[in-house]
Amino acid sequence: MARSSLHVRTATPEDVPSVVAFGEELRDLAITPTAEIVRSRGGAAGSTRAYLEQCYLDAIEDPLRELVVVVDDADEPLGMALLFVAPANALVDIPAVHMSHAVVGDRHKRRGAGRALVAAAATYAERRGIEQLVVSVHPGSRDANRFFARLGFAPLAVRRTAPVAAVRRRLGQAESRPVAEHVVRRARTTPSRRATRLATTLPLGPADPAT
C-alpha cells in the first residue's frame, strides 16, 4: 500500500473538533490541567471542551498567530501546531518563530506528520526573515524531546508552572519558620573550626608531673 502524502495548511473552523481532540491529548500531559484553568476562571469542569473550542477559534481568527494542521490525502488532520512570532529571550529582543501546542495524534504517529509540522514552522520563519525557531515541549514527553533533539533543537530553559495561591502558601510556610532562631541555636551548639582546632592542641587538665 502506497504511503499517503502529507501537507500542512492553516486550520479552519471546521477543523476545531479535530484540534480539540489533539488539545485534549496535550492536556493529559500538562502539569496544570485545562479543567483547573477553567475552574479558576469561574467555569465548571464540564465546560472544558467548550473552553478549548473557543481558544482554538480565537487562534484561527487571530492575525498574529497561525494554527496549522498536517493532513493526509483525504484531508484528515493528523496533528497541529500553533505558530507565532515573539522574542526568543525575555531580555534580548531577537525575534523567533515559536511553535507551541505541537502534537501528532497517537494513532497517526510514525507517518512523518511531526517532520511536516516542523518544516511548516521553518517555512513560516523564512517567509518572515526570522532565523530562530523555538518549540515548547513537555518535559515528560520523552519521545517528543528526542524527536526535536534529532532535528537540532537544543534545550534553552526549563519553564515551570504553579498556581499563584500554591506559591503563596509555600512562601508563607517558609517565612513562618524561625530561621534566625535556628541559626543562633546552631551557632551555640556547633563549635567553630578554630575552637575545635584549639581544643585538640590545648591540654585537657594539669600537666603530668612526670614530664
Structure at a glance:
By secondary structure, the protein is an alpha+beta fold.
Q: Could you characterize the architecture of this molecule?
A:
This protein is an alpha+beta fold and 211 residues long. The chain has 2 domains: 7-161, Aminopeptidase (3-Layer(aba) Sandwich), CATH 3.40.630; 165-197, no CATH class. It is 44% helix and 17% strand. A 5-stranded mixed beta sheet has the order 1-2-3-4-5, sandwiched between helices. α1 crosses α3 (48-61).
* Low confidence ranges: 31-35, 194-211
**Roughly how much helix do the residues carry, as a percent range?**
40-55%
What is the class of the largest domain in the CATH system?
A: Alpha Beta
Shape: globular
Query: Termini separation (Å)?
Result: 101 Å
* CATH H level, superfamily name of the largest domain: Gcn5-related N-acetyltransferase (GNAT)
Order of helices and strands: EHHHEEEHEHHHH
* Structural class label: alpha+beta
Major β-sheet profile: 5 strands, mixed
Strand order of the largest sheet: 1-2-3-4-5
DSSP, total strands: 5
Look at the structure and give the mean pLDDT. Answer: 80
Backbone CA Rg:
28 Å
List the helices and strands and how they pair.
Blueprint: E1 7-10, H1 16-29, H2 34-40, H3 48-61, E2 65-71, E3 77-87, E4 95-104, H4 113-127, E5 133-135, H5 142-150, H6 164-176, H7 179-189, H8 193-201
Parallel strand pairs: 4-5
Antiparallel strand pairs: 1-2, 2-3, 3-4
Helix pairs in contact: 1-3
